[in-house]
Write a structure and sequence with these properties.
Strand order of the largest sheet of chain A: 1-2
Number of strands of chain A: 4
Order of helices and strands of chain B: HHEEEEEEEHE
Shape of chain A: rod-shaped
Number of strands of chain B: 8
Number of helices of chain A: 6
Shape of chain B: elongated
Strand content of chain B: over 45%
Largest sheet of chain B: 4 strands, antiparallel
Helix content of chain B: 10-25%
Strand order of the largest sheet of chain B: 2-1-8-7
Largest sheet of chain A: 2 strands, antiparallel
Distance between the termini of chain B: 56 Å
Radius of gyration of chain A: 46 Å
Structural class of chain A: mainly alpha
Largest interface: A-B, 62 and 85 residues
Oligomer: heterodimer
Radius of gyration of chain B: 25 Å
Strand content of chain A: 5-15%
Distance between the termini of chain A: 134 Å
Chain lengths: 185, 165
C-alpha cells in the first residue's frame, strides 16, 4: 500500500522519525509510482527555492484597499513609532549611547536646577548670611523664596529693662550733620 | 528612517541645552542681585542721664537689595519703636532712603498710650550716618532732669562679598 502525498512530503522534509523513515525509504525504492510522485514534489520544492521572492506589496495594497472600501480599515498609514525599522548594529549602539549621555546630562541639569541652594556668607564677627534652600528654578521663584523669608529682614532689639524712656519732643530724622547739639559718644 | 530615529536624541539635546541655559541665567541673575546688594546697619543707643555712664548700644545689620525694606523693632518696657528703611539706588550711584518710624509709648502716671509716626525721604551717600530720634532730640537740660535719651543710627553700605582665601 502506497503512502499518501502528505506522508511523502513529510518524509521528503525529513519529518518522519525512525523506524518509519526506513520503511518509507524501502517502499519508495521499490515503488515506481511513489518515486515519480516524490520526484514531482522535489521539482516543486526546487522551483520554489530557485524562484525570486514575489513582491507582496501590491497584493497587500489591494487587500488594504478592499478593506478600506468596505470600511474595515482606515486609509491612514501606521504611525512612525509603530513601524519596524532596522538599523545597522554599530549605528544603533552609537545612537543608544548618545541617548544615554544626553539623558544623563538632562537629569543632572534638572536635579541641579531643582535643588539649587543660594548661600551668601561674609566673613568677620558681624557676619551676614543668607540661605535660600527653596527650589531655584527661575528668577521669579528665587524672588518668591526671598519674599517668603521676609522675617529674615526684620530685626528685633530688646531695650534694657530698667530704663523708662520718655518723649522729650517730636520724633526727628536727618543726617548726622544736622544735629549739632547731639551728645557725642 | 534613520533621520526619524535622530529626532528624539536631538530633542533631548535641545532640552538639555535649554535647561543649562536657564541655569546660567539664574547664576547671572544671582550675581546681579549680589552686585546691587546693600547692607543696612541700624544701631540703637540709649544715653543715660549721667554723662559719665556709658551708653547702652545694640546693632542690627541686614542685607537687602534696592527696593526691599529692612525692618527693626525695638521693644522696651514702656515703648515700642518700629523702623522701616527702604533704600533705593539712584542713577548717580547715591542712595535714596525712605524711612518710616512708628513709636508707641506709655507715660506715667496715667499710663496713656501715645503714638508717633514719621516718614522721611533722605538722599544719602554710602557710609553716611542718618540719625533718628524716635522720642525727640534731647538737650542737656532734659538729660539733667534724669531722662534717658534714645537714638538710632542708620548706615547704608554696598555689600561686598569677600572672596574666600
Amino acid at each position: 500500500m502506497c503512502p499518501d502525498r502528505e506522508i511523502l512530503s513529510a518524509w521528503l522534509d525529513g519529518e518522519i522519525d525512525s523506524p518509519w523513515d526506513g520503511a518509507l525509504e524501502e517502499h519508495v525504492g521499490s515503488c515506481p509510482d511513489c518515486r515519480a510522485r516524490l520526484e514531482r514534489l522535489e521539482g516543486v520544492r526546487r522551483s520554489l527555492l530557485e524562484s525570486p521572492m514575489p513582491d507582496w506589496r501590491p497584493a497587500m495594497e489591494r487587500v488594504r484597499s478592499s478593506l478600506v472600501s468596505r470600511g474595515l480599515a482606515s486609509e491612514k498609514a501606521a504611525p512612525v513609532w509603530r513601524r519596524r525599522v532596522s538599523l545597522p548594529v554599530p549605528l544603533a549602539v552609537a545612537a543608544g549611547l548618545l541617548v544615554m549621555v544626553l539623558a544623563g546630562a538632562l537629569a543632572v541639569s534638572v536635579i541641579r536646577s531643582s535643588f539649587g541652594m543660594v548661600r551668601i556668607t561674609r566673613q568677620g564677627s558681624g557676619g551676614t548670611e543668607i540661605r535660600i534652600a527653596a527650589s531655584v528654578s527661575d528668577l521669579e521663584s528665587l524672588l518668591r523664596s526671598v519674599d517668603e523669608d521676609a522675617g529674615s529682614l526684620e530685626g528685633i532689639i530688646m531695650l534694657p529693662k530698667d530704663v523708662q524712656l520718655l518723649p522729650v519732643g517730636e520724633p526727628r530724622m536727618g543726617k548726622e550733620a544736622e544735629f549739632s547739639r547731639r551728645k557725642s559718644w | 528612517m534613520v533621520r526619524r530615529r535622530l529626532i528624539a536624541p536631538l530633542l533631548l539635546a535641545a532640552a538639555a541645552v535649554a535647561v543649562r541655559a536657564e541655569d546660567l541665567n539664574i547664576t547671572e541673575a544671582l550675581q546681579a542681585l549680589l552686585d546691587n546688594a546693600l547692607e543696612v546697619k541700624i544701631s540703637a543707643r540709649i544715653f543715660p542721664a549721667e554723662a559719665e555712664k556709658e551708653p547702652w548700644t545694640a546693632e542690627s545689620t541686614r542685607l537687602t537689595i534696592p527696593g526691599r525694606s529692612v525692618k527693626v523693632r525695638l521693644e522696651g518696657d514702656n515703648v515700642q519703636i518700629y523702623l522701616v528703611c527702604t533704600p533705593y539706588t539712584e542713577e548717580n550711584g547715591d542712595v535714596l532712603l525712605l524711612s518710616q518710624g512708628q513709636v508707641w509709648f506709655t507715660e506715667p502716671p496715667e499710663k496713656k498710650a501715645k503714638y508717633f509716626s514719621t516718614f522721611y525721604s533722605i538722599p544719602v551717600s554710602y557710609g553716611e550716618k542718618i540719625l533718628y530720634f524716635p522720642l525727640g532730640m534731647s538737650d542737656t537740660d532734659v538729660q539733667e532732669q534724669g531722662y534717658f535719651n534714645i537714638e538710632l543710627e542708620i548706615v547704608i553700605v554696598p555689600y561686598v562679598k569677600e572672596v574666600p582665601q
